[in-house]
Write a structure and sequence with these properties.
Elements (H helix, E strand, L loop, with lengths): L11 E2 L29 H13 L2 E6 L1 H5 L18 H6 L2 E6 L12 H18 L4 E4 L2 H9 L3 E5 L2 E2 L7 H9 L4 E3 L6 E2 L2 E2 L1 H13 L2 E3 L5 H10 L5 E2 L16 H9 L3 E5 L2 H4 L3 H15 L4 E4 L7 E2 L9 H10 L4 H29 L7 H4 L3
Parallel strand pairs: 1-14, 2-3, 3-5, 4-5, 6-7, 7-10, 11-12, 12-13
Antiparallel strand pairs: 8-9
Helix pairs in contact: 1-12, 6-7, 7-13, 11-12
Length: 378
């Protein structure tokens, strides 16, 4: 069951009336949604994509499903749920092996206490997973993701959570980590602003490294991204960033930051949203090509951003459509090795790195008791 809440707008797919101003004109339906005749994937490519995904499933870097479910009076993800973009039949059809579940916080004066809102989201996540034991499994480590996959479950990784959930307390960060949090978004906090990380912000990143919590710099200022890349002992994430050179969205990364991210072996997870990547499958593939070429094949991943209220490209309307994207990349000449890193391997590498660094750091460094007022005043 879910709490009785007002309905939220359903996520949509770009249609002929929704084409963005700089998008190409729509093609006839007979040619396939979002494709030109030369780009239309054939059945052989789709079959190859499905075979590859069966071996290297998708680790999806951002899902808004928990927040979407809290507005439904009833749902069943195992049988299928038309009110959301994500359910077990579509996850299986899309060959999704792992999902990063966003812990969304309400905005505005009615949002209430950030800590309480984060804990309520955690409670909802556990309730959803317990209600679907044959399909979902809450995981904390890269090894547990592999175990969940071997048991036929979709692994659920907690995060990203907004940095506001900490309420400037490293103690709260440790509590959230004990409850399973693995990714924290730095943007939108007093300690990660336009000028970069404050001294307290640097202490937050150090404590995140000690705990194995990954830093997400999506939407952060260039100064914050650069300082976090330099300071963090583990790779950092951009859970919803594409290439600004192709589309000037504020959350997309310019090439100089993509280069820095690549050198630090971080991970840019390209979102499947019309606003950030464009209204067609080839548009999304263009961003994946660009990030791979600039940052390297070990630094590009996927972020479905399903159930987050955004508009998706044509033919990528829900979590079942990943084979169509992989077929397009196969058509462009991506190797099996590159695709295996894109879908699964890069996320595994980043999580394993965070786990290893945390184990080592906990032998050298005690839990930080620093407060924001101790460092960022005067």
């Amino acid at each position: 069951m879910a709490d009785l809440q007002d309905d939220i707008p359903t996520t949509t797919e770009v249609g002929e009336d929704d084409i963005l101003p700089d998008a190409p004109p729509p093609v006839p339906a007979s040619l396939g949604r979002g494709y030109t005749p030369a780009e239309q994937p054939d059945t052989d490519l789709l079959a190859r994509a499905r075979t590859l995904l069966a071996e290297h499933p998708v680790a999806d870097g951002y899902s808004g499903l928990p927040w979407a479910l809290r507005h439904l009076p009833w749902y069943d993800l195992e049988l299928g749920e038309a009110a959301v973009d994500t359910d077990m039949p579509r996850l299986r059809e899309g060959h999704v092996g792992a999902l990063f579940w966003s812990l969304h916080l309400p905005e505005g004066p009615g949002g209430g206490c950030a800590v309480a809102a984060a804990l309520e989201q955690l409670d909802l996540v556990r309730t959803v997973i317990e209600a679907h034991p044959e399909g979902l499994r809450l995981v904390r480590t890269a090894g547990q993701i592999i175990d969940a996959r071997n048991r036929g479950r979709v692994a659920v990784v907690l995060g990203p959570a907004p940095g506001a959930a900490l309420e400037d307390s490293l103690g709260i960060l440790r509590v959230l980590r004990d409850l399973g949090l693995r990714v924290l978004t730095l943007a939108g906090t007093a300690w990660a602003g336009a000028s970069g990380l404050t001294r307290f912000g640097e202490e937050v990143v150090r404590e995140m490294n000690r705990l194995g919590v990954l830093a997400d710099v999506t939407g952060a200022s260039p100064a914050t991204v650069e300082r976090t890349v330099a300071l963090s002992k583990t790779p950092i994430l951009c859970t919803r960033s594409a290439a600004r050179a192709l589309r000037p969205h504020p959350a997309n990364l310019p090439d100089e930051l993509l280069v820095a991210l690549g050198r630090a072996k971080g991970l840019c997870m390209v979102p499947l949203t019309a606003e950030q990547t464009g209204p067609t499958v080839p548009d999304v593939a263009d961003h994946l090509d660009h990030v791979r070429d600039v940052a390297g094949p070990e630094c590009v991943g996927l972020s479905g951003t399903y159930d987050s209220g955004v508009v998706h490209p044509r033919d990528l309307a829900d979590a079942s459509r990943y084979p169509h994207l992989i077929a397009e990349l196969l058509r462009r000449g991506w190797s099996e090795t590159e695709l295996s890193l894109l879908t699964w391997g890069n996320v595994q590498r980043v999580l394993r790195s965070a786990d290893f660094t945390a184990r080592a750091a906990q032998h050298r460094r005690d839990a930080s008791t620093v407060r924001i007022g101790d460092l960022d005043t005067l």
